[in-house]
């Protein structure tokens, strides 16, 4: 009997199309096999002869630079030995020299890139494209990111487009965003970030550690991460945050240069972090909060200072209220926390405050925010304050040449409004405020707040340390634990509205309505001001103010107009690279009772639309034309217009320079689309000019075989 020739592997087939379909990874634009943990995948091994019982065959999966067995970075799987670190391998069938193997990784395996070698006796076979990408698995019940609902998995893991909600609580609008987690180099960029994070293999098992590390790496602050934040208003040395329409270009550029991309603001950070988390397989959504507090002292109070014209002052305020702020929720079981805090966790990559020495934030259980359990990791005090702080208004007056501070109002329900995300499977806004907070004024809210206060211990009602010496409190007395909205002796109430559409180039026509509801004759001093501000609350320009004294009797109201001419604001509008909002502040004082009330409202400008013309359906690999049409219906010329368009799976991002578009003129641009993927695909378009930053639109087309 001749001795058997040594067993050798002659080839390996990763059965990519079957495996990726079953693992919901067929979207990734990459040569390698991408699979999710805790779920079987198959590989077909070709040998130089039939496999015999005495033969030794093992699959070796190595992760990291120098994989070794005792550190868990090298897994040696033998068909006859069932389990190794929770991984399993079995022979499905043998057919002559072919051998079909099934591999199941552990549902808590470290995510990342694994190098596969096949060992037979003393021979080792190294296949080309032998690197396998292993991701989190929301379809696997034993994975901590398991999400039971298929519609939610489609939205939060597989949807590569969406909306980010911006504007102000008074006028919310959607900004289409291409996440593009399946596009070329995006998965590689995420793997590069994982390596850069220096997370240990053990930490890579847990999405809580991975998401925290990613919240740090998406900003450039400590670690040369993806995006450099800037709120300067001047972005000549990079791309203005308003110009991006998706994450793809940003992550591709970062992966190519390994240098931070300029520039990001909160929705850009959130858009990119959403891409990264979905790409790695963690269910993720962008969350927008309107009137979000950035409370630097964590004392649950934001102080706003006004001058005697009712204009907000930038100079005194360390705290700020952002018109909106966008972060992310990621879905997971928190194995590091007591029961009851699984589900959505807030993470935030906008660099606002350091946490454990780095600009990172979260994961913070959304349930901990709702219940007031703000001692739980990570950063729950900061997130709690963002949605629950009180807003206190101080009037700054000169008395004998010194600034004195008078409290003119406290709002306890003004922060953390209209918390929003894109609805599952629908192109509409879903309000998720209830997941973050109990209804205002409910018994649960009071209990939750008392719980939170017991961990935070807010200071009494005096302004910041630097100004404390000159404080004159108007009412005296101490603040109850949970301040109520001030109930005035006159039933004083303020409303701010716009009476005409707010089109750039037209006068801004607004009105302040003053109401009283208690019998008596009331003399009300009303101060109103209009300013332009960034979404971060930074004031950019003072446009005008009014002072009136009005008389109201019993239950009555009066509307006072506030009108700003175009010349007062158009120059500012053209000179900044950010979208600005119109801030109207009103202060009312009743002479007879000394009642004081302050109200502010932010509004956004309204713009003419972009129209997208294309067929409703198209066939795979069959070209079609898409046209973008814009008519300038404003009374001003839009200078230096750029149209930016992108369609994932249809065409690469394209920019058209349109020059100046005069009033009444129509612009038209066309792009040829080649569908490379099936299903519903979206085209996103954005028009940017000196005067206007925020016109965007999107349209979907169905691609069939």
TrEMBL record:
| Documented EC number(s) | 2.3.2.13
UniProt similarity note: Belongs to the transglutaminase superfamily. Transglutaminase family.
For this protein, what is any one GO molecular function term?
Answer: metal ion binding
Q: Which domain of life is it from?
A: Eukaryota
Q: What is the lineage of its organism?
A: Eukaryota, Metazoa, Chordata, Craniata, Vertebrata
Residues that bind Ca(2+): 388, 390, 440, 445
Is Metal-binding found in the keyword set?
yes
Q: What is this protein called?
A: protein-glutamine gamma-glutamyltransferase
Q: Which residues form a coiled coil?
A: none
Q: Which residues form the active site?
A: 266, 325, 348
- Cofactors named for this entry: Ca(2+)
PROSITE patterns found in the cross-reference section = TRANSGLUTAMINASES
Q: Which organism is it from?
A: Oreocharis arfaki
PANTHER family registered for this protein in UniProt: PROTEIN-GLUTAMINE GAMMA-GLUTAMYLTRANSFERASE, PROTEIN-GLUTAMINE GAMMA-GLUTAMYLTRANSFERASE 4
Cofactor descriptive note: Binds 1 Ca(2+) ion per subunit.
Indicate the segments forming the Transglutaminase-like domain, all copies. Answer: 258-351
Keywords (alphabetical) are: Acyltransferase, Calcium, Metal-binding, Transferase
Main enzyme class: transferase
């Amino acid at each position: 009997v001749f001795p058997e020739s040594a067993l050798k592997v002659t080839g390996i087939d990763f059965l990519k199309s079957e495996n990726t379909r079953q693992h919901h990874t067929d979207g990734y634009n990459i040569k390698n096999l991408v699979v999710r943990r805790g779920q079987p995948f198959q590989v077909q091994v070709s040998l130089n002869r039939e496999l015999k019982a005495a033969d030794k065959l093992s699959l070796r999966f190595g992760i990291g630079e120098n994989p070794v067995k005792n550190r868990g970075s090298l897994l040696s799987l033998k068909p006859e030995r069932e389990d190794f670190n929770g991984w399993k391998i079995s022979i499905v069938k043998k057919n002559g020299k072919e051998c079909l193997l099934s591999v199941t990784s552990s549902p808590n395996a470290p995510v990342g890139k694994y190098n596969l070698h096949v060992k037979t006796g003393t021979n080792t076979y190294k296949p080309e494209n032998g690197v396998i990408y292993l991701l989190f698995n929301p379809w696997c019940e034993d994975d901590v990111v398991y999400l039971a609902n298929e519609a939610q998995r489609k939205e939060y893991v597989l949807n590569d487009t969406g909306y980010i909600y911006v504007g102000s609580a008074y006028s919310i609008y959607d900004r289409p965003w291409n996440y593009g987690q399946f596009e070329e180099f995006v998965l590689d960029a995420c793997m590069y970030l994982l390596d850069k994070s220096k997370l240990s293999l053990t930490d890579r098992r847990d999405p809580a550690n991975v998401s925290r590390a990613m919240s740090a790496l998406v900003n450039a602050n400590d670690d040369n991460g993806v995006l450099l934040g800037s709120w300067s208003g001047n972005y000549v040395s990079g791309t203005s945050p308003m110009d991006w329409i998706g994450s793809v270009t940003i992550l591709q550029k970062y992966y190519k240069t390994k240098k931070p991309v300029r520039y990001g603001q909160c929705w850009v950070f959130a858009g990119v972090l959403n891409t990264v988390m979905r790409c790695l397989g963690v269910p993720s959504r962008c969350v927008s909060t309107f009137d979000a507090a950035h409370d630097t002292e964590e004392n649950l109070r934001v102080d706003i200072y006004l001058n005697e014209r009712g204009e907000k002052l930038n100079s005194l305020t360390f705290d700020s209220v952002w018109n909106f702020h966008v972060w992310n929720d990621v879905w997971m079981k928190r194995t590091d926390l007591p029961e009851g805090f699984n589900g959505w966790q807030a993470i935030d990559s906008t660099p606002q405050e350091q946490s454990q020495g780095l600009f990172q934030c979260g994961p913070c259980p959304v349930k901990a925010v709702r219940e007031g359990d703000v001692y739980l990791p990570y950063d729950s005090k900061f997130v709690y304050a963002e949605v629950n702080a009180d807003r206190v208004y101080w009037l700054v007056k000169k008395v004998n040449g010194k600034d004195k501070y008078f409290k003119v109002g406290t709002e306890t329900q003004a922060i953390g409004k209209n918390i929003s995300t894109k609805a599952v499977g629908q192109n509409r806004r879903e309000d998720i405020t209830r997941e973050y907070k109990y209804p205002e004024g409910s018994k649960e809210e009071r209990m939750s707040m008392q719980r939170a206060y017991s961990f935070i211990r807010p200071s009494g009602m005096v302004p910041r340390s630097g100004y404390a010496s000159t404080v004159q409190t108007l009412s005296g007395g101490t603040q109850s634990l949970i301040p109520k909205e001030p109930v005035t002796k006159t039933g004083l109430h303020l409303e701010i509205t716009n009476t005409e559409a707010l089109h750039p180039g037209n006068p801004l026509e607004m009105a302040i309505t003053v109401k009283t509801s208690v019998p008596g004759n009331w003399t009300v001093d009303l101060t109103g001001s209009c300013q332009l501000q960034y979404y971060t609350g930074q004031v950019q320009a003072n446009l005008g103010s009014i002072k009136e004294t009005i008389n109201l009797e019993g239950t009555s109201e009066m509307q006072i107009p506030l009108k700003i001419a175009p010349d007062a604001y158009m120059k500012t509008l053209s000179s900044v690279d950010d979208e600005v909002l119109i801030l109207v502040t009103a202060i009312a004082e009743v002479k007879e009772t000394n009642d004081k009330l302050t109200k502010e409202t932010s509004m956004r400008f309204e713009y003419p639309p972009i129209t997208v013309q294309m067929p409703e359906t198209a066939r795979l690999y069959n070209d079609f034309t898409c046209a973008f049409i814009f008519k300038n219906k404003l009374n001003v010329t839009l200078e230096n217009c750029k149209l930016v368009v992108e369609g994932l799976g249809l065409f690469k991002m394209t920019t058209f320079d349109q020059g100046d578009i005069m009033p009444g003129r129509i612009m038209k641009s066309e792009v040829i689309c080649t569908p490379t993927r099936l299903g519903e695909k979206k085209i996103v378009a954005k028009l940017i000019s000196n005067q206007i930053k925020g016109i965007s639109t999107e349209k979907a087309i169905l691609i069939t075989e």
